[in-house]
């Protein structure tokens, strides 16, 4: 399978976009992955709370860079196919 | 030529005078390699001792140095280069710590030979632990169990070349294919490291395995892949499967024994993270199982056609 570096970058961008669109109150609370229920100080964080933390931090940190990178990618794909 | 003479010079700076435009900067506390640079420039430029010659000596020496304008220009250029290098080092140091990276390349021939033997036949090795103190990383030349990055890098490049050769024997070679093979293998490696790192985070396995160590361990499979490709080319598909089985078993065993000491805590610490033992064991197993899968995946399409 001929994966190139551009494919990797595109796949990473799409994955991060997918994480960023998981809205907190519209979707995650309904599934039961809300962040306000897992803020205990237990010793073993557990797998679910780690994932929830990861999603929350990705959404918080990557909001602005994602806008920029998405815009650049869209423009480049429009220009160069 | 500027950079090696600068590094080499820093080791001997205690007993030598330094040239003005090159400030001293911090390297490792112990010299990582012997100074085998070329002997000094016989020109009379400030009477420097050996190890500082190559930059000016290589430029045909005397008639350039005797012209004062060119002299000043060269000095200015070298000071600019040094400043640029310092700025770049400071910036790069925030992402990849260069001083730690140097330790991974401090290898010598006996280490490389023994490590290659160990990668292909790890069943006789008895002592897998690394003797070093925790503060300072150990250069692999002193300790055979330490991971290094020299073998993975060289094995990667050799794998690309052998893959090109394989394609050539099937008359389907073109130079773009080399680049495609290289980027494809690199992408799979990056994906593997990212997946393992995320698995370590999600399972909250707090190990002290560093990213470069993980890169080194995942890069050792290229050695096996070269063996597999050579077996496949020389002995047909029977040889391919035999070599694949052998190298997979060796790599699996090697990684199990090595990672068991790094990731699983031994009985001497009874800390609270003994509850994560099951996850750690699964993680070690998963890393060790991933390697043969990748070895098979990345060499399958290079086989000569089944006849």
What topology emerges from the helices and strands here?
The complex is a heterodimer of chains A (81) and B (307).
Chain A: H1 5-20, H2 24-31, H3 47-61, H4 63-80
Chain B: H1 2-11, H2 54-57, H3 62-65, H4 68-95, H5 98-104, H6 109-120, H7 150-169, H8 175-202, H9 211-219, H10 221-263, H11 277-300
Summarize the structure in words.
Chain A: Belongs to the YOS1 family. Chain A: Residues 1-18 form the signal peptide. Chain A: It is found in: Membrane. Chain A: The chain crosses the membrane at residues 60-80. The complex is a heterodimer of chains A (81) and B (307). Chain A has helices at residues 5-20, 24-31, 47-61, 63-80. Chain A has 81 residues and is mainly alpha-helical. In chain A, helix 1 packs across helix 4 (63-80). The two termini of chain A are 21 Å apart. Chain B is an all-alpha fold and 307 residues long. Chain B has a domain at 147-306. Chain B is 62% helix and 0% strand. Chain B has helices at 2-11, 54-57, 62-65, 68-95, 98-104, 109-120, 150-169, 175-202, 211-219, 221-263, 277-300. The termini of chain B are far apart. Chains A and B meet through helix 1 and helix 3 of A and helix 8 of B.
Mean pLDDT of chain A: 82
Detail the poorly predicted runs of chain A: none
- In terms of DSSP E residues, the strand content of chain B is under 5%
Most residues in contact: chain pair = A-B, 15 and 15 residues
Stretches with pLDDT under 50, minimum 5 residues of chain B: 1-28, 40-58
Number of beta-strand segments of chain B: 0
- Separation of termini of chain B? 52 Å
| Count of separate DSSP helical elements of chain B | 11
Radius of gyration of chain B: 24 Å
Structural class of chain B, please?
A: mainly alpha
What structural class is derived from the secondary structure elements of chain A?
Answer: mainly alpha
Quick one: biggest sheet of chain A? none
Report the radius of gyration of chain A as a whole number of Å. Answer: 16 Å
Order of helices and strands of chain A: HHHH
């Amino acid at each position: 399978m001929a994966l190139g570096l551009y494919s990797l970058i595109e796949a990473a961008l799409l994955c991060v976009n997918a994480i960023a669109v998981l809205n907190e109150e519209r979707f995650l609370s309904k599934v039961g992955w809300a962040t306000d229920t897992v803020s205990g100080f237990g010793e073993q964080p557990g797998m679910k709370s780690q994932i929830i933390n990861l999603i929350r931090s990705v959404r918080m940190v990557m909001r602005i860079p994602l806008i920029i990178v998405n815009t650049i990618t869209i423009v480049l794909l429009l220009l160069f196919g | 030529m500027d950079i090696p003479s600068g590094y080499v010079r820093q080791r001997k700076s205690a007993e030598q005078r330094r040239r003005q435009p090159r400030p001293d900067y911090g390297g490792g506390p112990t010299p990582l390699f012997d100074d085998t640079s070329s002997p000094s420039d016989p020109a009379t430029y400030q009477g420097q001792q050996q190890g500082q010659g190559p930059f000016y000596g290589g430029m045909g020496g005397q008639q350039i140095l005797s012209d004062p304008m060119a002299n000043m220009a060269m000095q200015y250029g070298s000071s600019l280069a040094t400043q640029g290098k310092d700025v770049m080092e400071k910036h790069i140091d925030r992402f990849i710590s260069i001083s730690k990276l140097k330790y991974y390349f401090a290898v010598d021939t006996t280490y490389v030979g023994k490590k290659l033997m160990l990668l292909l036949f790890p069943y006789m090795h008895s002592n897998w632990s690394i003797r070093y103190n925790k503060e300072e990383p150990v250069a692999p030349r002193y300790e055979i169990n330490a991971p290094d990055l020299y073998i993975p890098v060289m094995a990667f490049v050799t794998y690309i070349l052998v893959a090109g050769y394989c394609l050539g024997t099937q008359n389907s070679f073109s130079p773009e294919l080399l680049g495609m093979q290289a980027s494809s293998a690199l992408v799979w490696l990056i994906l593997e490291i990212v997946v393992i790192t995320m698995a370590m985070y999600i399972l909250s396995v707090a190990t002290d395995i560093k990213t470069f160590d993980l890169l080194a361990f995942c890069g050792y499979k290229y050695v096996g892949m070269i063996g597999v490709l050579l077996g496949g080319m020389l002995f047909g598909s029977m040889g391919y499967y035999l070599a694949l089985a052998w190298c997979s078993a060796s790599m699996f065993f090697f990684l199990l024994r090595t990672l068991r000491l790094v990731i699983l805590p031994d009985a001497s610490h009874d800390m609270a993270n003994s509850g994560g033992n099951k996850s750690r064991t699964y993680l070690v197993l998963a890393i060790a199982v991933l390697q043969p899968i990748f070895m098979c995946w990345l060499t399958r399409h290079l086989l000569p056609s089944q006849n």
